[in-house]
Amino acid sequence: MRVAVHRSGGVGGLRVGGTIDTADLSDELAARAEAALEPQRLEAAAAEPEEPGAADQHVYDVTHESGATYSVGGGGSSDVPAVLDELVNEIIRHRRG
Questions:
Q1: Which site among 11, 46, 65, 90 is 20 to 30 Å from 3 CA-CA?
Q2: Domain-wise residue ranges, the chain
């Protein structure tokens, strides 16, 4: 599954990310990513209300291989933001070689 994930916000406000294919990930991370990237889970995570102090939290913009786009905040009870953060970190790691 190919997906574009960009992280912005936080204290520094930088936007980082890119495109990654779950086939390039470890089996464990690929399985968690594919589960988190199911459209229903992304929609639910995007609909969660902002937590107090949300201005300093990351926001993840996701373009699913289906073409749908989602904006997921870093707070809430979902595990989706944590997985998206791992994907952004993998994108950065792959760029550095």
A1: 11
A2: 2-96
